[in-house]
Structure formats: C-alpha cells, structure tokens
C-alpha cells in the first residue's frame, strides 16, 4: 500500500486579515489573560519549563506549551 505525501500549504495572510491571539494562564488558582501581566510576570511566564510525567498516556504527553508572547 502506497501513501502519497502532499505538502502542507499554509495560506499567507495580509496584516489586516490577522487576529491577535489572546493567551490565558492559571495564576494563584484562577485564570488571567497574559495581556494584563506586568513586564516581570510576562518574563516569568516565558521562563517556565514544562516536563513530561513518566507513565502518562501518549495523547496527554503530546500537548506542548510553546508560546511567544507579543504582549507589551
């Protein structure tokens, strides 16, 4: 059985077609948008390290949390 590999084609958006993505995170037991963080808290968020817990199902381990914050 043969499978053909079709390349992924991502549409190129103009700047006026883009929508800003709002990133929320859990802080002290409740959720807050990163846009409301001060510069120090934004830096702390970007320095977070994530780990895979041994023995977890593969589906749960596939989630990655790479975020580029353009908040200022």
Topology as a string of helices (H) and strands (E): EEHH
Separate helix tally: 2
What characterizes the major β-sheet? 2 strands, antiparallel
Rg is: 18 Å
Chain-averaged pLDDT: 76
Q: Helix amount, in percent?
A: 10-25%
Shape: flat
Give unreliable regions as ranges: 60-69
Question: What is the end-to-end distance?
Answer: 52 Å
Return the structural class.
Answer: alpha+beta
How many strands?
2
The portion of residues forming beta strands comes to 5-15%
Largest sheet strand order: 1-2
GO molecular function: ribonucleoside-triphosphate reductase (thioredoxin) activity
Pfam family, one: NRDD
Describe the structure.
The protein has 72 residues and is of the alpha+beta class. The protein has a domain at 22-50. Helix content is 17%, strand content 11%. The protein has helices spanning 39-46, 58-61, and strands spanning 24-27, 30-33. Strands 1-2 form a two-stranded antiparallel ribbon. A hairpin with a 2-residue loop joins β1 (24-27) and β2 (30-33). The chain is flat. The chain starts with 23 loop residues before the first strand and ends in an 11-residue tail after the last helix. The relative contact order is 0.16. InterPro entries: NrdD.
């Amino acid at each position: 059985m043969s499978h053909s590999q079709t390349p992924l084609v991502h549409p190129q958006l103009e700047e006026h077609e883009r929508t800003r993505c709002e990133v929320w995170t859990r802080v002290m037991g409740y959720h807050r948008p990163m846009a409301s963080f001060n510069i120090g808290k934004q830096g702390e968020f970007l320095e977070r390290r994530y780990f895979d817990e041994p023995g977890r199902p593969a589906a749960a381990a596939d989630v990655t949390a790479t975020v580029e914050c353009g908040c200022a």
